[in-house]
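Bench notes, afternoon.
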Amino acid sequence: MRNLQNRLREGNVKVSPPVWIRIFQSLESRMVTRNILIVEDEPAVAQSFNHILKRSLEYNYQVKIVDSAEDALESVKKAGAFDVILLDFYLPGITGGDFLRALRSRDLDTVVIVISASQDYRIVHDVFKLGADDYLTKEELSNPYVMEKAILAGLEKREYQKESSRIEITRQRIDAITTMIRTVHHELNNPMAIIDLTLNKVNSSPERIDPQLRSHLKEIQDNVNRMSDILRRLMNFRDEMYNEELRGLKLFAIPEKPSLGKDPA
């Protein structure tokens, strides 16, 4: 896809204008859309950023440009979270640092890349402390690939954090369910053992038991055995199971057989 786009831009592929349009529309429709907010008070600089993003071969960037932190806060309030914010540090009125502090008080997901002409390490330290994902100097942005590389790195970092969070939540759920199962096992195991022992004593003299009563006792014994088997298998519960027939619905399944040689505790 990249080679075709480059050849089309360079004019190495001769097609009529309508075909050009259809090809680009088809390519863009297959690209993931990302919403970008550019906060930059210099119109020429903001447009240069926009130009770089529009030439992207990775994403279909939908760009909104504002020239102040006040307008940026209003845009976030109206439009909701953006995927990425390119933030000029030195802004008239509310500074980029103040904007970042206000944003992070309610939004930890948006990737924020701070941009400044300054290379002062104190500014770099401060913006990272406030929650920036990256810091670029305007000199670095003379290379058009630097900006998108930073954006891609920020988006990948955020996806990794979300996946790590999902894994941690799943682990906590498993731990909570395992604790509940062990509690239920402990509370039921002793009474079941007493019932089983009592049945064995009663059945030790079958000649003294009425045939009808013996039939009822056998039924009770069968159910006690079944419940004891379920309790043993409960202690081998470890993982969440998926039912593909139910479109990935997450279920909690008891193992078919207890694991041999494993300590259930």
